[in-house]
Amino acid sequence: MSSASPLFAIDPLHKRERRKQARPGELLQAALSLFVEKGFAATRVEEVAALAGVSKGTLFLYFETKEDLLKAVIRENIANLFPAWNEEFNTFKGSSSEMLHYAMRSWWERIGNTPASGIPKLVMGEAQNFPEIANFYHTEVIEPGVALIRRILQRGIDSGEFRKIDLDQAVHTVYAPMIFLMMWKNSMGLCSSGIQIDPVRFIDMQVDVLLHGITI
Amino acid sequence: MSSASPLFAIDPLHKRERRKQARPGELLQAALSLFVEKGFAATRVEEVAALAGVSKGTLFLYFETKEDLLKAVIRENIANLFPAWNEEFNTFKGSSSEMLHYAMRSWWERIGNTPASGIPKLVMGEAQNFPEIANFYHTEVIEPGVALIRRILQRGIDSGEFRKIDLDQAVHTVYAPMIFLMMWKNSMGLCSSGIQIDPVRFIDMQVDVLLHGITI
Amino acid sequence: MSSASPLFAIDPLHKRERRKQARPGELLQAALSLFVEKGFAATRVEEVAALAGVSKGTLFLYFETKEDLLKAVIRENIANLFPAWNEEFNTFKGSSSEMLHYAMRSWWERIGNTPASGIPKLVMGEAQNFPEIANFYHTEVIEPGVALIRRILQRGIDSGEFRKIDLDQAVHTVYAPMIFLMMWKNSMGLCSSGIQIDPVRFIDMQVDVLLHGITI
Amino acid sequence: MSSASPLFAIDPLHKRERRKQARPGELLQAALSLFVEKGFAATRVEEVAALAGVSKGTLFLYFETKEDLLKAVIRENIANLFPAWNEEFNTFKGSSSEMLHYAMRSWWERIGNTPASGIPKLVMGEAQNFPEIANFYHTEVIEPGVALIRRILQRGIDSGEFRKIDLDQAVHTVYAPMIFLMMWKNSMGLCSSGIQIDPVRFIDMQVDVLLHGITI
DNA sequence: TATGAATGAGTCTTCATTCAT
DNA sequence: TATGAATGAAGACTCATTCAT
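^ Those are the sequences you sent over. The predicted structure of the assembly is below.
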């Protein structure tokens, strides 16, 4: 109020307002890190609220249920990335091999290497107990992801780069190692004494083997 | 617990006695199926006891805590299989490609296609809450499994069938899809509306791509 | 609060001012209908505020607590009716039987058949938790009501129409069915599958039996 | 075990067992007194359990829900009385006037003058919030009660003692004051400063007026 | 050994009330 | 005055674990 230049004449938000707009994001971030760290069921909503710096009641102002909170976490951190991704691939220049390699690398950078990588473990772990979450994940994440991969493979086949493989099976071959990698990283990978997988080398290896296998 | 699984014990004790000794095994079997079906947290010990035909109190006579029960389930259903497996591979006749294919198929038949396939999901889901379990799984399952795969690949390289690939990476390439398949089958695969993966075709595809990628 | 209900105030203040003074009345009306419809405990203050077209905070500007709001509702809707009623009976022409009949009918029209009929249920339901309210109701409603009935019966005895009954008991006989009717209407009467009492016939019957019983 | 005489050879219950059989009754009694004293919603299950001398969890061993507990209270204290009552009236000797008088007096002794008299207030107070309870009360209490009254009146008409009144209305006239009396006793009647109704005189008066009204 | 009655800590969710704006 | 974001106390219900029998 005291010093708004005319350029910002559009009523600057009051402090309270600004907090309100930031809240969902802060809660989502807190929820993601705790859900991933301790599992969905084992995380108390109170912890999430505390980590976001608010009280338990406030959380329920923004999310109707703990389950809703999880859905929002998924949407925010994964589902929302697809539109931009699709766009990006529409305009990709280069061979389909490069495209596939790029896709997997960039998936790693944007999801696999972020806290969001813990989500698949979460979802799979709770799938039976919360079927609605599993369905949601399917619709919002798996299906768009599979569609994206399929487009890349189809493009390679159309251009004569790839063999005429069975697409329905081949897509699994692409995303299976990615999902595996995320699961591993967020479970066994945390074991101090365990086998450590180097993600970048793992991905390169997967792409390498895969391309060896499907290129003509 | 210390002796061999009572399921395989053929002893001359009269029925009463035998039942007593069979108890832990029945509880273990009940626990496996319920843990896999409903998840560890969502399974009540009373259900396990009921399915095993005993009362809640009896279960605690054999297992100190619910967590102990889970550990025993893992030990009993996976770790114990390796010795026989190693033996079998020592005497395998045939090419290394055949050996790899055989290994993956037989893994599917003996674990992937049984209730035991639900165990990795259990372990990963509880890994952070029970680090001891994760470590146990590492030592008793992952490491022997990786060693087995490494032997097969090494055999192929030695015999000139396979390229001189980086073994440390390559082993991941082999077991990643298997673990993925088990996880999928026991989570998203249960979604009625979800993408269904045909396990046998999936494995064949994996082997196919893999061999295309690594054979000379 | 101290002045007469703003609903009846016709003053020359401009609209803004008038709205301000109208607020408590609107809140009271909203509170009455919701308390009666859903019960005191089950009505959220936010709903009351919303129905009155203000925000939750505003309600607390006018009423210190939810309980205070209930007290105001009772005061406003019942206690205030008695003066006019007393006046009316001072000038009644006709037999005492007619007077009794008229009294019960007109009570039905002015209270029993309005949302205010829900108040006794409210008061009785909360009587133990808020003894103050019960006392208030006693002083402001029950006692004036009983006094009114007693006057009618006394008039009948004096005029020789009625037997010399025990007045202390007889008054109960008059108002008991009325209170019962209000309670029934606002509780069991709402049960779709329940016994429905036709209020007018019920009252006529009561008066009929009563007059049969007390007239000479 | 140690000293069971042959006469009691039918295995005497162990202490634990005996407790178990007593528990529901103890809980029911505790629930009745607290529900009546403080209202259903305002009574915490933990208080009920404590008053019955058990822990919160134990209560849920015997009653699935707080609402179930209330239903059991109603059944135990009112609904269950009807069979015996019906039986009694089948064999009643005397005039229908006496029968009616007897019915109301004995209702007072067995319900009105016991803690169970608080139940109608409970039910009416919670009717909207728990429609299932209201329906239950209707079916289990109101309807049998009304049927009983109707039989008495019909008997009087058949024997020529009573006028040919409208039965549907007349039954209300009988039970309305009883329900009123119970409500009053458990709400306004508790007000130290309030009008006190003497139940026996009230009932006598009701019967007196009623019989004056309906006998030929 | 086996039972199952009893326990009570633990968690989500609601809502009257406060208070910064 | 008016707002509505924030609070946090409260309460029903669950379930692993214990222990008297």
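Residues 16-17, 19-20, 23, 54-58, 61 of chain A lie near DNA strand F (CB under 10 Å from a C1'). The mean pLDDT of chain A is 87.

Shout if you want it in another format.
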